[in-house]
Write a structure and sequence with these properties.
This protein has about 270 residues and is α/β, with parallel strands linked by helices. The protein has eight helices and 13 strands. Strands 5-4-1-6 form a four-stranded mixed beta sheet, with no helix packed on it. Strands 3-2-7 form a three-stranded mixed beta sheet, with no helix packed on it. Strand 12, helix 7 and strand 13 form a beta-alpha-beta unit. Helix 5 runs parallel beside helix 6 and helix 7 packs parallel to helix 8. The longest helix has 17 residues.
């Protein structure tokens, strides 16, 4: 076995640092926390470092942001190969920051229909590159002009970088079903939907509900029948209530929520 010896380790249950920090590792699994090294163990002394469990980031986008990204030019200048190369660096930095699992909650970029986060997850799993486990959502499902429509953020003129149903811009029950099915077909492990506006939206109030109740139910129905959960970008209390009543599994943000919506979630 491999034994890691550090100055301490974080005991999350107890809420304290245990000193010294000893971990015994068998292959790719932690076999024992604490205790002495075995006589045949390889021991790595980490000095004054403190060990902590792998962190999880439940809403991240490794395909956006990072070195070289510019909010004004990248949406129309950066092609999918360049975004993938930048994501390699983002994934490596995320892992080195202590995050071992992330949910990549929606692509909001023009990709030609490719699910770049699925490809990134596969490359990490195969050992091509370093990064956390990635749970990919594919393209976020959003109505035209919705909070997750990237052409809305950039205030593009009509016809500039229009996205397809496959890329998540879906209106009406038939289109949202098609868009969800496309993400699932190409490897999404959960579905991300835009259920309300946001504080950065140019098109209406941040708490306004973006999809109708019928559309939300259709999205949930498609995902749940295939065994996937649905996470919803949702700020406002009315939109949170609509999302919960539609069967959505996870509310992202929700900071304009009220007591009645909290009670409904409970």
């Amino acid at each position: 076995m491999l034994t890691l010896k550090a100055a301490g380790l974080v005991d999350v249950d107890a809420g304290e640092i245990v000193r010294p920090g000893i971990l015994r590792i068998d292959g790719d699994r932690i076999a024992e926390v604490g205790g002495p090294a075995g006589p045949d163990d390889e021991v790595i002394d980490l000095g004054e470092l403190i060990l902590l469990p792998g962190l999880m980031d439940m809403e991240v986008n490794l395909l956006m942001g990072g070195r070289g990204e510019t909010a004004d030019r990248s949406p129309v200048q950066d092609d999918p190969p360049l975004r993938m190369l930048r994501a390699v660096g983002n994934a490596r930095r995320t892992l080195r920051a202590g995050f071992t699992t992330v949910r990549n909650l929606g692509l909001f970029v023009k990709t030609g229909g490719y699910l770049l986060d699925v490809a990134l997850a596969k490359a990490i799993d195969a050992g091509y590159i370093d990064g956390p486990r990635v749970i990919p959502a594919g393209h976020a499902i959003t109505p035209t002009g919705g909070h997750l429509d990237p052409t809305m953020f950039a205030a593009f003129a009509p016809g500039i970088m229009e996205l397809s149903v496959e890329e998540g811009i879906a209106n009406g029950v038939d289109e949202v079903r098609k868009s969800v099915r496309y993400q699932i077909k190409h490897g999404a492990k959960l579905i991300k939907v835009c259920a309300s506006g946001g504080v950065m939206s140019h098109t209406g109030l941040p708490g306004a509900q973006h999809y109708s109740d019928e559309e939300l139910r259709a999205i949930v129905d498609e995902a749940h029948r295939r065994g996937l959960r649905v996470a919803a970008h949702t700020h406002g209390a009315d939109a949170v209530r609509a999302a919960v009543e539609a069967g959505i599994d996870c509310i992202e943000h929700g900071f304009l929520i009220d007591d009645d919506a909290i009670a409904l979630m409970v």
